[in-house]
């Protein structure tokens, strides 16, 4: 649900700059990077700024930049907590109509700038489970135009007080760490990632290993898959800001092994900890969470594709050197890999290159797309990335000197 355009426009316009000079300057710089470098907004474009309330100061700066470039701007402000509270009294038709305005605006837009992260990301977890699933399914349907790249889009997860609490940091300190991840040589990273992609695209099999010497075998990761015929995308800041990663999808029925994802994870307002997955012929046949296993099982019940993978990727942001609760940051950590439980992307072109990332596990099979990230640093038990039997990365660092820019600065 959202207020009308005039009300949101007034709210955005009246927003004052943060009193902390570093935060205020960082927000202005991030707005410029998102509008000009990531979204590449042009004169005459129809730009939808979709946002959660914590990011409203950034929205104000992005709006000013878009207007200066001659774009037509409309807003959609998600009221996540209110949506969650309203679900109990709505049937499926009512939930469907919650998204009418949002759907209309997405269909109107040429370009979407998304500033996501609600104040209370656990709110939907308090809604009735069947209604929350209907909400998630409808959200996925409405955003299909974005998932398939039929509308240009750029996503920024605004750092929140909630996340700072999860990191055990004062908000200002967490904000600074977040902004440092945004300050990277994206052009050089893109060129270096292109060399990595050449290696990956020649490969037929991919093997990912982490924490293999842990005395508890349930806390080890060793997973193999076919990437034959798939190709990797060169992602810096085109869709997600900050970047960067190289991503594709495994051949759907080829994934085998075990994944252990330590730490707290949240998906669809469901908070879980220490997740173990056993995979056979592409399908997750066993899954356990040390905390909130019930929530994990509910996520995996969302359609036949929920137990299959739609993405595999390597994180390559050298400024990110540790695990984060924020999943957008976490999946970009250099020396990590992530796999998405759920649907694949369906686009055939990315950043001007022809790609194949569609493995058949599309949104008709599940609305889920949930990234689980595993670090392979020495401090987390080490690990390896192996392509066709050749180790290309060990303990979080690529062995090829030409790829050194992508290694974590640790």
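Q: What amino acid sequence fits the structure above?
A:
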């Amino acid at each position: 649900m959202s207020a009308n355009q005039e009300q949101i426009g007034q709210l955005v316009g009246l927003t004052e700059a943060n009193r902390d000079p570093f935060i205020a300057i960082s927000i202005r710089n991030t707005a410029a990077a998102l509008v000009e470098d990531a979204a590449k907004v042009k004169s005459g474009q129809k730009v939808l700024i979709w946002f959660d309330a914590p990011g409203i100061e950034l929205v104000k700066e992005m709006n000013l930049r878009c207007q200066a470039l001659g774009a037509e701007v409309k807003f959609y402000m998600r009221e996540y907590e209110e949506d969650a509270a309203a679900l109990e009294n709505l049937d499926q038709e009512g939930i469907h109509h919650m998204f009418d305005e949002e759907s209309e605006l997405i269909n109107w837009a040429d370009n979407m700038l998304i500033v996501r992260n609600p104040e209370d990301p656990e709110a939907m977890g308090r809604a009735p489970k069947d209604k929350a699933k209907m909400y998630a399914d409808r959200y996925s349907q409405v955003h299909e135009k974005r998932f398939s790249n039929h509308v240009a889009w750029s996503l920024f997860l605004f750092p929140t007080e909630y996340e700072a609490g999860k990191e055990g940091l004062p908000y200002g300190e967490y904000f600074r760490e977040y902004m440092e991840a945004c300050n990277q040589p994206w052009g050089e990273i893109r060129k270096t990632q292109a060399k990595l992609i050449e290696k990956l695209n020649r490969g037929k099999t991919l093997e990912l290993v982490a924490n293999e010497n842990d005395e508890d075998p349930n806390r080890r990761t060793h997973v193999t898959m076919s990437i034959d015929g798939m190709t990797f995308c060169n992602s810096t800041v085109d869709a997600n800001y900050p970047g960067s990663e190289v991503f594709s999808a495994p051949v759907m029925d080829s994934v085998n092994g075990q994944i252990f994802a330590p730490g707290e994870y949240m998906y669809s307002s469901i908070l879980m900890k220490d997740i173990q997955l056993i995979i056979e012929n592409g399908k997750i046949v066993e899954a356990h969470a040390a905390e909130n296993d019930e929530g994990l099982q509910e996520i995996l019940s969302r359609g036949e594709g929920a137990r299959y993978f739609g993405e595999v990727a390597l994180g390559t942001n050298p400024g990110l050197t540790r695990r984060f609760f924020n999943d957008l940051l976490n999946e970009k950590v250099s020396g990590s890999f992530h796999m998405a439980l759920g649907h694949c992307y369906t686009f055939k072109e990315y950043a001007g290159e022809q790609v194949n990332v569609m493995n058949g596990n599309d949104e008709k099979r599940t609305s889920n797309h949930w990234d689980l990230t595993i670090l392979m640093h020495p401090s987390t038990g080490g690990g390896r990335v192996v392509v066709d039997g050749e180790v290309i990365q060990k303990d979080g660092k690529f062995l090829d000197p030409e790829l050194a820019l992508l290694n974590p600065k640790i």
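Q: And what stands out in the fold?
A: The longest strand covers residues 256-267.
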